[in-house]
């Protein structure tokens, strides 16, 4: 046995015997939320994973052939170990390869030059900051080898770890990770989740996320601000809530006191009440103004029943998506990619982009129509629709060029306030009209057999808020309360939408307009002033909401176009290309709005069927089927039924809306 070990060159045998590091790298890749085997090979190839030598009859098998790089380590990549032995590369330098040619297959020797290039590409030095920790890992490897006997310098068989906790601490960065977890337990707080087992693993995950993730649901374009906190806040057990209560933002160049440090502003966790408020704002927007006309298309009996059914199905679908997220944390696109591959991620992002783009086109039409009516009512010039759309485009462009979406945060508050005031006014007038007219001005149809397909698309459009379900759930302090919060919100939203649509249709009958604001009377000066005021409020609300609604679409298209064009890192040239893409998207909004100007109700139904139906009814049950293959039969039937319902809504409503476009 001793003779066999002496045949292995000592320079080749400088590897660290650690199945532990290799297992931790594989575990890291699983938590990196990547999907297919090809991606796994690419990402794991960026990790520095040490490979032990196993001497067997004086020969080294192809599966364990050592690989040396310029740093003196013997290592290989997990990506290589996942491949067939015939495709693996011997990355040893020529000197080492020649000295051990009797112990390695000839196929490996023939691939030395090719393997060297591949090793350089997969080296941890290619990671941002990877070279900074090279000495740390070399020191750790040296300390490990010094504990072994002379014979172990040439051969070391891996042993099972007696105490995994202690062994985890005795790795670079292990003591710090152990301290963070134990300190949280001491304070009675839940131990934080450690997402990486070493700094190199963190670098690999960071690079993978930064450059390989499609910017779908991660729409942050600028880093968070820094805040100033006491240096000894951790020692004094100052809670983050107390620290943030009197937060002071750090200004670059500012001199801090000796007892102060600047840290990145943490994301504030949402309480149950705040989560309910955010969900409510997600589902209540200006689209509610289209419902009275939609109820006319559906019928006074069919419309409320179908709206309630859609609310129940949406709640079920949202909860399915949340369950999938518990199994694989990530964004909507991440979940789709995990279960079905990259093509599903692109499909999800395409649906998100189209839905947000369609919303903004509808808002542009709304803005142009209502602005024209207000100006005409006040005695202004009667301008063509093209002029109003161009005005909307000119005002929209500067807002879409804003990178930090947080700067538009105040606009959401103003928009919500305008919508609430307008809804209260419309509710009051609808009730007043019903009382004065002692009912509806004409008989109401229970079921509209001609136009109910358009109503179906509008109903789906009204509940489209799935894009905010995952972010709000992930931001809650107690995510287990999210199902209850979502149930409460959707129940209230359903009652609100059904009551508003029913009252509007009952108050105006078959004369109800596409936008219910047009039905408000303007006979007296007071009525005219009230109508103009409500119209202006909604014009402001719609315009302030449009940049926020368009921002996800911009980020998705911008990332895809610039990646395809091979744009480099942040620079003046890239900034100009980004601006050009954003302006072109604004032009697209204006062009589509011009085409659908006189068919707003049909356009809204088209967006609901084409973009919203897959996001609401098709993708979540598809993910759930793949995530829980061992679920009971009745649950599988439920998922398949929801998928079929989504496909029916998608196909039938799409055909109906296209036919309606051609008729009008």
Features:
664 residues; mainly alpha; 3 domains; three-stranded antiparallel sheet; two-stranded antiparallel ribbon; 61% helix; globular; disordered N terminus
Your description of this structure?
The N and C termini lie far apart (89 Å). The chain is mainly α and 664 residues long. Strands 4-3-5 form a three-stranded antiparallel β-sheet, with no helix packed on it. Residues 1-23, 32-38, 40-124, 155-164, 200-216 and 234-245 have low confidence and may be disordered. The chain has helices spanning 2-6, 19-31, 37-44, 78-81, 94-99, 106-110, 112-122, 134-146, 164-169, 174-186, 199-212, 240-245, 272-283, 291-298, 302-327, 332-340, 342-377, 385-400, 409-437, 452-462, 469-475, 482-508, 525-564, 572-595, 600-627, 633-663; strands spanning 49-50, 75-76, 226-230, 248-249, 260-264. The longest helix is centred in the last third of the chain and has 40 residues, at 525-564. It folds into three domains: 2-169, no CATH class; 225-266, no CATH class; 272-663, Amino acid/polyamine transporter I (Up-down Bundle). It has 26 helices and five strands. Helices cover 61% and strands 2% of the residues.
């Amino acid at each position: 046995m001793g003779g066999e070990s002496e045949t292995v060159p000592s320079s080749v045998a400088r590897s660290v015997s650690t199945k532990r590091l290799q297992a931790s790298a594989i575990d890291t890749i699983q938590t990196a939320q990547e999907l297919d085997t090809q991606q796994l090979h690419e990402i794991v190839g960026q990790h520095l994973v040490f490979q032990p030598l196993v001497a067997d009859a004086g020969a080294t098998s192809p599966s364990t052939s050592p690989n040396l790089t310029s740093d003196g380590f013997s290592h290989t990549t997990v990506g290589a170990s996942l491949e067939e032995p015939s495709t693996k590369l011997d990355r040893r330098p020529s000197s080492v390869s020649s000295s051990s040619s009797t112990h390695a297959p000839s196929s490996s020797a023939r691939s030395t030059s090719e393997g060297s290039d591949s090793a350089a590409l997969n080296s941890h030095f290619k990671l941002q900051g990877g070279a900074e920790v090279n000495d740390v890992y070399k020191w750790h490897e040296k300390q490990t080898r010094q504990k072994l006997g002379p014979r172990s310098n040439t051969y070391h068989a891996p042993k099972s770890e007696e105490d995994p906790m202690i062994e985890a601490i005795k790795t670079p960065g292990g003591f710090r990770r152990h301290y963070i977890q134990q300190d949280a337990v001491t304070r009675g707080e839940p131990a934080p989740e450690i997402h990486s087992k070493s700094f190199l693993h963190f670098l690999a995950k960071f690079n993978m996320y930064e450059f390989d993730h499609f910017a779908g649901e991660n729409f942050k374009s600028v880093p968070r601000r820094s805040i100033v906190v006491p240096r000894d806040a951790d020692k004094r057990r100052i809670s983050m809530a107390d620290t943030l209560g009197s937060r002071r933002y750090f200004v670059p160049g500012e001199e801090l006191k000796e007892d102060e440090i600047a840290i990145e502003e943490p994301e504030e966790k949402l309480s149950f009440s705040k989560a309910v408020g955010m969900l409510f704002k997600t589902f209540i927007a200006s689209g509610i103004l289209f419902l009275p006309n939609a109820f006319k298309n559906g019928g006074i009996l069919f419309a409320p029943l179908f709206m309630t059914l859609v609310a129940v199905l949406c709640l079920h679908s949202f909860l399915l998506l949340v369950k999938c997220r518990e199994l694989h944390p990530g964004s909507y696109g991440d979940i789709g990619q995990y279960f079905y591959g990259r093509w599903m991620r692109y499909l999800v992002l395409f649906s998100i982009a189209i839905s947000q783009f369609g919303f903004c086109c509808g808002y542009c039409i709304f803005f142009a129509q209502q602005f024209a009516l207000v100006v005409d009512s006040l005695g202004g010039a009667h301008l063509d629709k093209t002029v109003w759309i161009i005005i909307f485009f000119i005002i929209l462009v500067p807002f879409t060029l804003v990178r930090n979406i947080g700067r538009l945060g105040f606009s959401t508050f103003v928009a919500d306030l305008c919508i609430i005031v307008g809804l209260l006014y419309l509710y009051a007038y609808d009730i007043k009209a019903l009382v004065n007219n002692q009912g509806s001005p004409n008989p109401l149809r229970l079921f509209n057999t001609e136009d109910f397909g358009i109503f179906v698309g509008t109903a789906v459009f009204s509940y489209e808020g799935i894009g905010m379900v995952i972010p709000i759930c992930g931001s809650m302090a107690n995510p287990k309360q999210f199902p209850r919060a979502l149930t409460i919100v959707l129940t209230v939203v359903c009652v609100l939408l059904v009551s508003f649509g029913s009252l509007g249709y009952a108050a105006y009958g078959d004369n109800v307009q596409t936008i219910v604001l047009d039905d408000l009377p303007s006979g007296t000066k007071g009525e005219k002033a009230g109508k103009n005021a409500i119209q202006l409020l909604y014009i402001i609300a719609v315009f302030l909401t449009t940049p926020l609604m368009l921002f996800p679409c911009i980020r998705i298209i911008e990332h895809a176009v610039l990646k395809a064009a091979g744009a480099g890192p942040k620079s003046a040239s890239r900034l100009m290309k980004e601006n050009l893409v954003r302006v072109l998207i604004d032009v697209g909004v204006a062009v589509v709005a011009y085409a659908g100007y006189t068919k707003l109700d049909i356009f809204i139904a088209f967006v609901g069927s084409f973009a919203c139906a897959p996001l609401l009814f098709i993708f979540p049950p598809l993910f759930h089927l793949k995530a829980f293959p061992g679920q009971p039969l009745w649950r599988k039937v439920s998922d398949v039924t929801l998928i079929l319902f989504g496909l029916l809504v998608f196909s039938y409503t799409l055909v109906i809306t296209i036919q309606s476009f051609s008729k009008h």
